[in-house]
Design goal:
339 residues, alpha/beta, Nucleotidyltransferase, domain 5, 3 domains, five-stranded mixed sheet, two-stranded antiparallel ribbon, 12% strand, globular
Length: 339
């Protein structure tokens, strides 16, 4: 007798549901989130477990790794792709776990990508860097806004703000309260800059670009950090059969639901990888400054629409180019991208 297991993983507990090969519910139990307790519940079925399914939630690392270490075949379910019938009167954690087990038994489970454990920590380190960069940007904008409110004119560029020191704020602001607020911004900016540089040095020291990603740096706007981000967030490029699949995963395509040639709303525009979406927007912002062809494309788009749409359109172009650069291991060719 073979068994199929579904796990509904929460922040502090996991619901285990076991089906036999005929679809009969054999066992269910809720346990606390300790891998030892989960393995103890699965022990009576060990050797007969065909596979285990769990959803790709925020905390799947510990349980997926723990089960795979014990020889279980683990499948990571895509929550947005595996939807239960909306007319069901009553659902709970146990029905959700049995639903995953049933999809697994029928062979129709829509799966996510289990990222290799070895690179996972470095990928999360780069995600932490992105969080710190956004926080630093918020403080820079806050300081510039404060200066504009008090002085009535703009202060200067981002790089100039980054070079400021706390003791200089008394010279810029006569009111001690405004000066104190500015000092808080500058102190935060300097601290976050130190942490960002520390993370970048660690990442560059611990991992190098793989051969298939090395040519990413030939794409305008993509340097060492962005290339590593794209490499670690993309994983195996072969899991995307077509360029459209990859660009959609990068959140570089519009989301729209239409009927009779009329827009009726939007679909799941958050479906995909937000970190890749950020990476290609960053690349687009650099490319439009330093690449003449990218700049002309951006100017044409912004003249017809607006700056945000033009930036996303350029990010879409760069994502498409990067797909072929990674898949075919060739240099970036601007003529093929922009004509």
């Amino acid at each position: 007798m073979r068994y199929f297991i579904g796990l509904d993983v929460h922040s502090n507990n996991t619901v285990i549901a076991v089906l036999d090969e005929k679809g009969k519910r054999v066992y269910s139990r809720r346990v606390k989130n300790f891998i030892k307790l989960v393995l103890e519940e699965l022990e009576p079925f060990k050797g007969k477990v065909q596979a285990i399914a769990l959803e790709s939630t925020f905390n799947w690392y510990w349980i997926a790794d723990g089960l795979r270490d014990q020889g279980y075949q683990v499948h990571l379910a895509n929550p947005s792709a595996n939807k239960q019938y909306e007319g069901i009167k009553h659902t709970n954690d146990f029905s959700d776990a049995f639903f995953l087990a049933e999809l697994l038994r029928l062979g129709i489970l829509k799966e996510g990508y289990i990222y290799p454990r070895r690179e996972r920590a470095i990928r999360d380190l780069l995600r932490k860097r992105l969080m710190l960069v956004r926080q630093r940007t918020a403080h820079i904008l806050s300081f510039q806004s404060l200066y504009n409110r008090v002085k009535g004119c703009s202060f200067g560029g981002v790089m100039y703000v980054k070079r400021l020191k706390e003791d200089e704020m008394d010279d810029y602001f006569e009111d001690e309260n405004f000066a104190l607020a500015a000092k808080a911004n500058i102190a935060s900016i300097r601290f976050l800059t130190q942490q960002i540089e520390k993370l970048e040095k660690t990442v560059l020291k611990k991992i190098e670009l793989l051969p298939e990603f090395e040519k990413l740096k030939t794409v305008p706007g993509i340097g060492n950090i962005l290339a590593l981000t794209i490499m670690l967030e993309t994983g195996d490029i072969r899991r995307f059969p077509k360029v459209g699949n990859y660009v959609s995963y990068c959140r570089c395509v519009p989301s729209e639901r239409s009927s009779n040639k009329k827009k009726k709303g939007e679909n799941n525009r958050k479906n995909g990888n937000k970190y890749l979406g950020w990476a290609y927007v960053e690349a687009a912002n650099f490319a439009r400054r330093y690449c003449s062809k990218a700049k002309r494309f951006y100017q044409r788009k912004s003249a017809k629409t607006n700056n945000i749409v033009a930036t996303k359109a350029l990010a879409h172009k760069l994502a498409r180019a990067s797909y072929f650069v990674m898949r075919d291991r060739v240099d970036y060719e601007p003529e093929r991208l922009f004509g």
